[in-house]
Fold:
Amino acid sequence: MERANLPAIPRSVVWMALLSFVLQVAMIGVFRQYHTRPGEDNFGFGFEMGRVGRSIALGQGFSNPYGGNTGPSAWEPLPYPYLIAGVFKIFGIYTYASAWVLLSINCVFAALTTIPVYLIAHRTFGPQVAIWSARAWAFNPYVWYWSIHWIWDTTLTPLILALIFLVALELEQWQGWRGWILFGALFAVGALANPTMLAFLPFCGLWVWRQRFRRGLPSLAGVVLSSFVFFLVLSPWLVRNYEAFGRFVFIRDDFGLQFRLGNNNLADGMLIATLQPNLNKLELEKFERLGEIAYEAECRRLAFEWIRAHPGRFAVISIKRFFYYWNGVPRPTDSTAPWDFRSSLFLASSVLAIWGLVRALRQKRPGAWLFAGLILTYPTVYYFVYPHARYRHPIEPELFILLVFLLCEARSRTTRGIAD
Structure:
């Protein structure tokens, strides 16, 4: 029977995932994270996604990302607002019970990611690195922070991307058509959850094709099938957007605002939050007056005008954004100090993971170039918009694996040195 060549998942890894989930849920209670911020009419409860979720729960459809009645929206990705809406319908809008449920679901996503982390590491670096990578993910307080602190898609996207990565590894030798269907469907779901994943798609697809070509396996029919499935999964949302706006909108329409938040007269490599409609009354009024599509276009126009007028400044802050993405964003009071190392652990994890990647490439480890492609492509858009610690989180599973690989390599060399 056609199947991926996956190793058996040890019972210990399943118990790790379960224990991780239990501990994360316990932390929700210990740190009272279900007490969401009630200011601004509970905007801090899910932010724009929470607003859209509220609109869906109230029967107003996918709309109104900042409240009021601004009409149909494609401001946020598709899956998570509907998840919020479903929870709101059952447990109440902006209630403690809804916060408990949504944060617990986040914990499920984070805990489940333990399994593809194990399988990816086993496939690329062997069982020892796999078991330690699973432990590092399952019991890492940094991972738990995103689960219990943010009502957002921050734990869903790492799970989807890890599954995409795993399927790509298996497609290297997976015969038949099921792998291609799964690949196309997962990438479509990933694009709907976080369109940034599409930056990885061309490299990922080319890597799969090259690996199969080297093994003498055909790919053309599989690529066609996978592409068909990809657009088939996306098409209902694209059709909805066309019907809602009278024009083609590819998944989301908030790029103009995000681009402007990082590129304006106050820009210094970070988010200028004061330009967001929820924090700026004038911007909200403009959003309501122009409508979502026209407002996005206006923001994009202003950002590009600023870049054309300040090309040198744009280049400098883009370099700073690259640094902040891997170092961590400094506190606002230090926004003019690009060499702030208070985020030393964040920087250290980046350096060690990339060091692990270099070693994997030198040793020609299986999948090493796929790791490299992910690290090179996924963050690219944030170098030109603005960075945030949670923007690195979708690729954390792969970074953790590379970091653990490096540490296991160092430990093995030390052990051999002592034995000699």
About this structure: The chain has 20 helices and no strands. The radius of gyration is 22 Å.
